[in-house]
Amino acid sequence: MINKLEIIKAIAAHDEWKHELAKAIKDGWRGITPDQIERDNECGFGKWLYGLSLADKGSEHFNKVQSLHAAFHIYAARVLRLASCGETAAAEKSLGVGELYAKTSDKLVAEMRDWIKAIENKFALTRSDAPSLHFHPTSGFAYPRRVQPLAKP
Questions:
Q1: Separation CA 112–CA 75 (nearest Å)
Q2: How far apart (Å, rounded) are the C-alpha atoms in residues 95 and 105?
Q3: Which is nearest to 75 in space by CA: 40, 110, 44, 115?
């Protein structure tokens, strides 16, 4: 069964892959083609996603994440095609906020966070004073909610 840590690691892998693509476009990408990038089952995130159990694949979150991840790879391949044709400025612009690549990536990470929340709700702690996790808005990393000190007797 999938757990929060797996999803957090998958978000981090996705984020790292995005940074690698941006760096590669800036510095000149060699060795991988847009057709290879279009395949959403070859990156670390994709291997994790497609390797989940059948029970996890039956989740509504899995279907949304799979769809968004596939779309993300299509947009990433489009960006790389621009760069490989010498249109580096257009490729870099395509990575920006508001562009399909960035919008799809943001939706993917948001859906992953929703999946984490669903897991938290399913396995919620019964104690009302137990700290819960907050998620950093850009990295997706979890950290505990600040716990108030006990009152002095």
A1: 19
A2: 10
A3: 40
Distance CA 115, CA 123 (A): 12
Q: What is the pLDDT of residues 113-140, one digit of tens each?
A: 999 999 888 776 434 445 566 665 655 5
Closest CA to 46 of 86, 17, 81: 17
- Give pLDDT, residue 132: 63
CB atoms inside a 10 Å sphere around CB 66: 19
In 1-145, where does DSSP find H-type helix? Answer: 4-27, 34-38, 44-50, 54-57, 60-84, 88-94, 100-122
Give the pairing type, strands 142-144 and 133-135: antiparallel
For 94, other C-beta atoms within 10 Å of its C-beta total 21
Q: What is the pTM of this model?
A: 0.77
Give the Cα separation of 22 and 4 in Å (integer): 27
The residue with tokens 């808005």 is 137
